[in-house]
Structures are given as structure tokens and as C-alpha cells.
Amino acid sequence: MPTTPSGFSERIESLRSQLFEQGRRVQSLLEMAFNGLFSRDLEQAKRCVAADDEVDKVDVEMERAAVALLGDAVKEGATLDQDSLRMVLTIVKCNNELERVADCAVEIAELAAHMRSLTSPLPDTFRVMANSSVGILRDTCVSIQKKDAALAKVVLQSQHAVTAFKDALLRDAEERIAKGQMSVDFAFRLHEVATVCEVVADHCTNMAEQIIYSMTGAIVRHTEAKWIELPRS
Hints:
By secondary structure, this protein is mostly helical. The chain contains six helices and two strands; from the N terminus they run H-H-H-H-H-H-E-E.
């Protein structure tokens, strides 16, 4: 079985470390977005939007570094083993997913302006759902850092919790609208943010699938409200 030359192994590990740091950067961005939304703090929301520039910059740098690594391997006739190739693919794909999560954070931050003009208090369920979204991203980042396939599987299951919170939030909003306790505009904004939370969880499960693939070679797929692993070929 071919072994990846040490120089390339070190570059791959460096990229993986950068991916973890990017994950922490995006997590901070998401937390900032929610804080701005909860407090209706437009200045904090603006800082979140501005901070996305650094995420975009690192995203491009990592993409180029991964392409350069593979290009150098071909040029030098270096043979990368299967584990190394899977890790490079995982880094590239997760890097892209993190950039998408950062876009979600920006979207949440931009909704702070709309929420500010609406005086209704945010439901407790919404705060729990927001915290769950941040928690899923945190666990995803840790699974990247520690190469932890077991934690990645926990992330997969956590997606259902976010969906359940969204369903409960929307049912509660419908009841409050019917009782005249919540405006349609406020419920509409809640629905927008809840949908973005669900998208964040979806991006995290995409990363979790890749982490499991890089560690075990198994391909994970979602069917009938459960996750299955296709054995390593």
C-alpha cells in the first residue's frame, strides 16, 4: 500500500488545522449574528456582516492551497495514499460548507433590522433552536479537529432536533396569530430565521458525512428519517 510522503502529510495536516480555525471563525460569526438578533443590536449585526470578508478570504486561500498540494503531488510523481486523498477531499468540501454557514450568519444578521421594528418578544423555543444550531456547528468543528467520526455521527442525529424545534416554533406562531398574540409580520420573520437555522444544520450534516468518510471510508446517506453507512469498498 502506498504511503504519502512526509512533506505532503504535513501540508495536509496544516490544511486540516486551518479548516478547524475557519470553523471556529464561522462559529464566532454565527454567535455574533444571533446575539445581534436577540438584542436587536444593529451595530453588532453590521460587525457580523463585515467579518464575513475574512471568512471569504480564508476560503479562497484554502481552496488554492489544496489545489496546489494536489498539483505538486502530480508534478513530483508523489503517490498519496487513500486516507490522504480522502482527507484532502474532505477539507475542500468542508471548507465550502463553512463558507455557506457564514453566509447563513450574514443572512441572520441582516434580519436583525427587520426584527428591531417588531416589538414582540422572541419565543423561548427560538432561543433553544438558535443555541442548538451553534452547538451542532461547534461539534462539527471539534470532530474536524479530533478526527472524531463518533462525534460526527452525533451531529447527524442533531439535525432532527433543529427540524423539530422549527416545527414547534411554527405551530406556536400559528396559535399565537389565531389568538391575536403575534403579528403575521413577526411570525414571517421567525419563519425566515428558523429556516436559516435548519440550513445551518444541513451544512453541518454535510460536513459530518465527509468527516466520517475521511476517517472510515464509509459513505453516509440519509433515508427515511435515519442515517445509513454504505460500507467501505
